[in-house]
Amino acid sequence: AFKLALAHPKRYAAAASLSGALDVVALLPTLDKAERKEWQAIFGNLKKLAGSDNDLDYLARHLVKSRARRPRLFQCCGTEDFLYDQNVSFRDLLKSLRVRLTYEDGPGEHEWAYWDHMIQRVLAWLPLELPTP
């Protein structure tokens, strides 16, 4: 969701990330042979991943430089999630770029129990406008 909102801010007013893999470039060294093959099918040449439209760091910096309207973003991650550190790093990047972000973390792993709880927070935050009767 963040990838689409950052790459196409005119199309998306808001996006949420629940325990997202927000730095795929940092995950590259951790991949085994089978995972690398799968990622190549998804992303193409992995040597060109950094600085591409699949690199959220790049997309966030590009959005700020473009001065385009910035989508509202909601990000959350459980403190026991294996992706927690990269979520904190991405939060800090957005903060340094002055991108508006609602961020929450707390106890939880990379599992449905955490996401079931947090999706309710996302829905309450989501800037939906109901049609006037």
Layout of strands and helices, then pairs:
Layout: H1 2-7, E1 14-18, H2 24-27, H3 33-43, H4 56-66, E2 72-78, H5 84-96, E3 101-106, H6 112-125
Parallel strand pairs: 1-2, 2-3
Give structural notes.
- With 133 residues, this protein is α/β, with parallel strands linked by helices.
- It has a single domain, classed as Rossmann fold (3-Layer(aba) Sandwich).
- Helices cover 44% and strands 14% of the residues.
- The protein has helices at 2-7, 24-27, 33-43, 56-66, 84-96, 112-125, and strands at residues 14-18, 72-78, 101-106.
- Strands 1-2-3 form a three-stranded parallel β-sheet, with helices on both faces.
- The mean pLDDT is 94.
Q: CATH H-level name... which superfamily?
A: Alpha/Beta hydrolase fold, catalytic domain
**Number of strand elements:** 3
Radius of gyration using CA atoms only: 16 Å
- Helical content stands at 40-55%
Main beta sheet: strand number and arrangement?
3 strands, parallel
Total of DSSP H or I helical runs spanning 4+ residues: 6
Which stretches are low in confidence, meaning pLDDT under 50 for 5 or more residues running?
none
The topology string of helices and strands comes to: HEHHHEHEH
Shape, principal axes of CA atoms:
globular
CATH class: Alpha Beta
Distance between the termini: 30 Å
Integer tally of domains? 1
CATH topology: Rossmann fold
Mean pLDDT: 94
Q: Class by helix and strand content?
A: alpha/beta
CATH-level-2 architecture = 3-Layer(aba) Sandwich
Strand arrangement, largest sheet? 1-2-3
Q: Indicate the proportion of strand residues.
A: 5-15%
